[in-house]
Amino acid sequence: MLGRREFLRRTLAGAGLVFASKIGSPFSWGESSGAESRIEVLIDEPLGIISPNIYGHFAENLSGVIYDGIWVGPNSKVPNVDGIRKELIDEMRKIKAPVVRFPGGCFADSYDWRDGIGPSEKRPRRTNFWAGIESDSAPANHRYDPNEFGTNEFVHFCKLIGSEPYLAANLRSLPAEEFYRWVEYCNSPAGSTTLADTRASSGFKEPFNVRYWGIGNESWGCGGNFTAQEYAVEFRRFTAWVPGYGQKLSFIASGPNGDDWAWSRGFFEEIVRKGREQLHDIFGLALHNYAWNLSRGRTQDWDQGKGDAVKFDAVDWYELLREGDRMEGLINGQWQVMSEEDPEHSVKLVVDEWGPWYRPGSEATPGDQLEQMPTQRDAVFSGMTLDIFNRHPEKIAMANCAQLINCLNSLYLAHGDKFVVTPVGHVFAMYAAHQGGQGLRTIFSSPTVNYDRDGKTATFWGLKGSASLQGKELVLTVVNPHVREERPTEIGVRGGSIKSVSISTLKSSDIHAHNTFDRPNAVVPQTIELQLSGKVANNIFPPASVTKVTLLLE
Ligand code: AHR
After folding, report:
1. Residue 217 alpha carbon to ligand 1 centre in Å
2. What end-to-end distance do the CA atoms of the chain give, in Å?
3. Is the full-model pTM beyond 0.85?
């Protein structure tokens, strides 16, 4: 076994990856470099195809998300395509954004889609659902929705970036008929109905063919304060007979808040009271989970429990990751509950809101509500979460990071003509290579992290990630959560031979590092390419990092 010194000597200085051994089997561990950590990718143990939609987004009409973030208007000095921020379009094309959810969130259950169609100058102004948390000095369009960005503009945005639209219907304050009419407006063929003609007269002759429809949002709370049983009855009524106009419609039910098993159980029990075949009308159950409580058990108060986005200690770093790591248990637990009435799992999980949620104070644009500054901690959190989704491809049909721009775990921040890609945005760019790949079982073994949690030693896993294969390209993404220690690691590919390797790493010597309008490149991935051969490769995963290892196989 090589000592640590020799391991490091054989490492290309600063480059990370050292060598690939031609000898030995990848991981009977007969031939080992002596690395303290190991990753074994099992080519012959497929988990299922990773839906591209796991890499989805969420854009709510909330403060600066739509107005200033996405929509600058066609007459703006900010470069735009038909009113949509051009830099955003360019960036989202790069990350292969598959699907975007709109218009909410809580906003959805107060929204009348008819306000957002027809000539822009004739559209009404309405009080935004979120107006109550806006200050008097907030831009008028954050408080009073001008409806300039409606269905046409949203679907156009999706087309420009190559995404599918996912519309959330208003179940709380509009009748089911209005939902049917919205589907008709979007999907009925040109010349067929009055609503199709209205669409065409706005320049959109071809149907939008919207497939994904959320039936309300958080119906246990802002979406109507229903019981699970009441909501299930509403869900059945809303979805009982909705023509798709040639487009298969995929309905997504408002699901549980985190570990609210009772909601999922109650919903399924009521749905199947009319027969198991009712399940076939449900594409997904929407799970929402935010990592927000950094109080280390001191409080469950929504405001008191939150931490700061940028000013934090090592313990807060680990606590946030610990909160986020609960996602895997939530997926497994909800899946188990769903199996009680749906043993064949015809309904999948749709995690259509996820991310960290900090207290106010770190906004790039002062006054933007719910906006926070994503740091390297959020990059690691996001990589870890996407890895969790990748490890459950048979369960997760879609996931939507909350939210795309100028909000919680945003990929981008923008204000006027300023725009920046956050560390979270870079993670999405790195992980895009997993989309549509065959998920592979991967075994990680690494020393655990020990840290001080109020005088007691707490532990967290040492290295985790996910792997996928498309043709000869094997993509392995890895998170090292340790704030100080690097992880020299041996990577074995069981069932394949390595031809060449490319490694992209997102790291920073400062765990608080973040990209601002003035310093947009403080945290950017660094990539190295290497020609190697063999079955075993080595890499040193830097502290507090997210890494993508792309292995081209023989
Ligand atoms: O993402 C912000 C809000 O969080 C959404 O509007 C709501 O669905 C959730 O509670």
Report:
1. 9
2. 27
3. yes
